[in-house]
Amino acid sequence: MSDLIATLRDGIAAAAAADPELRRFGASRHHYRLAPPVTDARVLARLPDDLRAFAAELGGGGAGPYYGCVQLNRTQSSSGPDGHDWLPVAHLGCSYAAMVM
After folding, report:
1. Using CA atoms in the order 71, 69, 78, 4, what is the torsion angle rounded to 10 degrees?
2. Fewest 10 Å CB contacts: which of 11, 12, 31, 56?
3. How far apart are CA 76 and CA 12, in angstroms?
4. Which residues are within 8 A (CB) of 91 and not within 5 positions of it... i.e. 6 or more apart?
5. pLDDT tens over the chain, length 101 residues
6. How far is the C-alpha of 87 from the C-alpha of 13, rounded, in Å?
7. Residues 53, 94 contacting (CB under 8 angstroms)
8. Per DSSP, what are the bridge partners of residue 62?
């Protein structure tokens, strides 16, 4: 396990311990839980290296920024105005999403 993955795992656990009533923004949606890691090689191949490590080793969605990470094994990429494929990775609210190329 990389240092980044260990830090993320510890950070999620610390945030959950500090917020048992789920009062932090987005916590009532994701409950500081992660979806199971992604095992589908086709999904993992679409992700940047750090996000691929997160999805394969830690969780394929759930706890994360804003309302949480989308479940990566259930998302579809879409073409952006620049012609590249973009993949949603986090729910920002009000129909907005954080995307990666």
Report:
1. -100
2. 11
3. 26
4. 26, 29, 66, 67, 68, 69, 70, 97
5. 688 889 989 999 999 999 999 999 999 999 999 999 999 998 888 888 888 888 999 888 899 888 998 888 887 777 777 888 888 888 898 989 888 87
6. 26
7. no
8. 34, 69
